[in-house]
Amino acid sequence: MTFKEDGAIAIAALESFAARAIAGEGPVINQPRIDELARRLDLDRLMTEGGLTGETLRLFLDTYLAASTRLHHPAYMAHQVAVPLATSAIAALVDGFTNNAMAIYEMGPAAATVERAVIDWMLRKIGWVPEPAQRVTDRSQASGGGVLTHGGSLANLTALLAARARIAPDAWENGTPEGLVIVATAGSHYSVARAAGIMGLGQKAVRHAPTDALGRIDPTKLPAFLASLRREGVTPFAVVANACATALGLYDPLREIAQVCRAECVWLHIDGAHGASALVSPKLRHLLDGVELADSLIWDAHKMLRTSILCAAVLVRDRRDLDQAFREEASYLFHDKDQPGIDFIHRTVECTKSALGLKVFCALASGGEGAIAAGIERQTELAHEAASLLRAEPGIEVAVEPQSNIVCFRLDGPDDLQIELRRRLTEAGDFYISTTEAMGRRWLRLALMNPATGLADVEHLVASLREHLAGTLTDDIG
């Protein structure tokens, strides 16, 4: 079989997979036992003998896709992962086939050019000045900069390394000085604490900022908190604000926090992995008011920009900060050379990097940024409608009025009940939702990512939850 023929088999299988999922056919999630699934996929034999082509490929894909979670299904409401636009998935195919490791320009000129254009587009959306065309030789001009990385965890780590480089320029050579701490909320993404561990700070170096009742940083209490840390003998070198927080989907008051950070000479990093995409929408960008005052921002394109995974941007107001995050020597990569383009390798953990910008570009270029904005607005409005529907249901409590496409609610009963209901939904496969802890309680959580999901699907979810609730009561009686 040829690439074209096997490619046609794969495309046909994916088209059928998506069409059936969008129509709501089959379970949204199916989790067979891993050993049984490995047997059905015939993994050991195929790895030993080969032959994954033609009819064997078709049968393999049928089995593989049958056990794949259907993000295209209207009942998919679990996690903040996009239903990718077809053009972005095609970009992933092009990237995988060309295999240009584009962290250095000579290994992927087209990919690097597209990534630079995407980074500049994001910088303009924030309100920062993109890098000048002559940036390779002119290092004195202050401007924004960035790089695309494989996921938000790497992006948060990279931004915090840039923050460390500002306060401790010798840390790369001599190690992280003692007494540096990061200020973040208890509801910040776990990758912030993970970054502290990787950087040698230790997770105890993440100090929890004062918050309001909903877990948002309270800027009126932040100056006193920073002062108390200094009296303790430690140095807060970065404040991490959420835009929006993973659990409840709420935005911190960025402008007020930024004003405090500037007055206190502390780096402000914004984790905008999910919520930064609101910058594309004229109706919603007010949620990030003051974002331009930050020092760094991360932005996941594989969430609301509908890019195939993984693709996250690390963006800084002053590119020179990012250029100081990593310092290394490798004679086969870092040396004087004629350079018609730009190398991204000095800004990333990765030495080998996929053409991530192509995925974002193709998602944007499919319908233009207006189409992306309309999609974000549609999902946000659906969250408001879902919250209203849930609030009107007897025996259901909604955590907060949504600011994004995330809705948290719970049925009357203990935390264990919420987890049990979610388990039963998942085992049945009819709906796929998540849970989270916030405000001291466990909530059922909807991340309304799928444009095929409508209010009727939320109504059906409620009905299914009530059926499972009745089942738990019956089990308890029995």
CATH architecture of the largest domain: 3-Layer(aba) Sandwich
Average pLDDT across residues? 93
For this structure, the CATH topology of the largest domain is Aspartate Aminotransferase, domain 2
Counting helices, strands and paired strands, the structural category is alpha/beta
Count the E strands: 11
| Biggest beta-sheet profile | 7 strands, mixed
- Give the full name of the CATH homologous superfamily of the largest domain: Type I PLP-dependent aspartate aminotransferase-like (Major domain)
Strand residues, percent: 5-15%
What is the CATH first-level class name of the largest domain?
Alpha Beta
The number of distinct structural domains comes to 3
**Helix content range of the residues, please?**
40-55%
Please write the string of helix (H) and strand (E) elements: HHHHHHEHHEHEHEHEEEHHEEHEEH
* Cα shape: globular
- Count of helical segments? 15
Spans of 5+ residues with little confidence (pLDDT < 50)?
none
Rg from alpha-carbon coordinates? 24 Å
Distance between the termini: 58 Å
User: For the largest beta sheet, what order do the strands appear in spatially?
Assistant: 1-7-6-5-4-2-3
